[in-house]
């Protein structure tokens, strides 16, 4: 594997975790949303990652063909029922006096955000380290 493939691998992880952070931000923004006029409520979304080959070119054979990176293959909705709170005075309450809120768990989303943020930071650090190593290698030739 060449040093340049490190940028492809870490770059794919940075891109995937950027999408993950956007989904987490959307989930956190909708923690306390209630069902709309059609009765549907916001459902928590999760990012699905998949390993894929990065840096492959025609005519290359494994193991030189590519390295494994990551990509987002899907964003799924959590179908667990939303939180129901008895509040008969709420304008969105149903006939029994219950208000349906989104199924987003703020604690789980904060943990997910911290994990995605650290993964993002670690991959940026990998790219910075690879850049420094390549610069040092170039300086050896001077």
Automatic annotation (TrEMBL):
Major localization class: other
GO cellular component, one term: bacterial-type flagellum basal body, rod
Signal peptide (UniProt feature, chain positions): none
Subcellular location: Bacterial flagellum basal body
Keywords: Bacterial flagellum, Cell projection, Cilium, Flagellum
Ranges where the Flagellar basal body rod protein N-terminal domain occurs: 8-34
Residue ranges occupied by any Flagellar basal-body/hook protein C-terminal domain in the UniProt entry: 95-140
A GO biological process held by the record: bacterial-type flagellum-dependent swarming motility
Assembly behavior: The basal body constitutes a major portion of the flagellar organelle and consists of four rings (L,P,S, and M) mounted on a central rod. The rod consists of about 26 subunits of FlgG in the distal portion, and FlgB, FlgC and FlgF are thought to build up the proximal portion of the rod with about 6 subunits each.
Family as reported in the entry's similarity comment: Belongs to the flagella basal body rod proteins family.
Protein name: Flagellar basal-body rod protein FlgC
């Amino acid at each position: 594997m060449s040093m340049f493939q490190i940028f492809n691998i870490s770059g794919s992880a940075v891109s995937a975790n950027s999408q993950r952070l956007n989904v987490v931000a959307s989930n956190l923004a909708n923690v306390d949303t209630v069902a709309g006029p059609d009765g549907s409520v916001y459902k928590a979304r999760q990012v699905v990652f998949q390993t894929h080959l990065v840096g492959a070119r025609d005519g290359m054979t494994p193991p030189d063909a590519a390295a494994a990176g990551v990509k987002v293959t899907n964003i799924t909705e959590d179908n667990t029922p939303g939180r129901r709170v008895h509040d008969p005075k709420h304008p969105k309450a149903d006939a029994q006096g219950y208000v349906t809120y989104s199924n987003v768990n703020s604690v789980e989303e904060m943990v997910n955000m911290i994990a995605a943020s650290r993964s993002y930071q670690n991959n940026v650090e990998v790219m910075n380290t690879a850049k420094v190593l390549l610069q040092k290698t170039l300086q050896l030739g001077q």
